[in-house]
Amino acid sequence: xxxxxxxxxxxxxxxxxxxxxxxxxxxxxxxxxxxxxxxxxxxxxxxxxxxxxxxxxxxxxxxxxxxxxxxxxxxxxxxxxxxxxxxxxxxxxxxxxxxxxxxxxxxxxxxxxxxxxxxxxxxxxxxxxxxxxxxxxxxxxxxxxxxxxxxxxxxxxxxxxxxxxxxxxxxxxxxxxxxxxxxxxxxxxxxxxxxxxxxxxxxxxxxxxxxxxxxxxxxxxxxxxxxxxxxxxxxxxxxxxxxxxxxxxxxxxxxxxxxxxxxxxxxxxxxxxxxxxxxxxxxxxxxxxxxxxxxxxxxxxxxxxxxxxxxxxxxxxxxxxxxxxxxxxx
Length: 330
Known about the structure:
Elements: H1 9-46, E1 50-55, E2 60-63, H2 65-69, H3 71-74, E3 84-88, E4 91-100, E5 103-110, H4 112-151, H5 157-182, E6 189-192, H6 193-207, E7 212-216, E8 223-226, H7 228-248, E9 253-262, E10 266-273, H8 299-309, E11 313-317, E12 323-329
């Protein structure tokens, strides 16, 4: 062996040091990569939409928890140049895709609520347009029926009154539709409960029903500072719903009761009725959704908006007896 092939102790030490340095650099690089990978996973997890990063063989390289919950949706997706929509399990998703080297990134954003609001806005605009068109002939029919009632034979007066009740129903729908499209605006002024009750009684008379219904209202004549016309609409909505519920009930008679309480902050009204139970409570305050044959799905929506405009709220209480709680700020 020549002296050229002999590794000196100094060279061996240097080689060992280089090996340790390479190992240290490798460990630092590995730790840096792990940190980067952990950061990417946390960022992907933080995103509000479902994210998949897919290999060319369709295996999942990376995904967040929202994507894992929608793993069946992934089967319906494909990489496209343009964004597109997919309906899955009665919900709508906006799909975006992007290619990078041997990976495909797919994202699914739930746009169900956005589409619902867009559809409601469109329906509201259409309904408002139709309401304007219907209002003039309805006004003419109302005027002519009032004139006709004075001239017909007494036995024909009930027929004219039925016409007036039908016109009143249509007028209520028109007012509700226009208010829904424009929004609720209140004009407060003090008034007595008895004045509001008189207006409610007139609405009940025009609404019409076939069963024997007992109406129980607060006896005390308290003062309220609110928009009387809007509160008339609010209470008429709830009472007409209660009448319809009693009409659908098997009993020949029914009871509708309005109870009033007051504290330093609110007038609290509790409306009870003996009619059938509410079937779909989840859609109770959804616009254009109604379980009633006569309903247009706006009454309770507007009632909630009216209470909120008065600094209050409305809700269906849980319990053995069907009851709505209405709060109006004092």
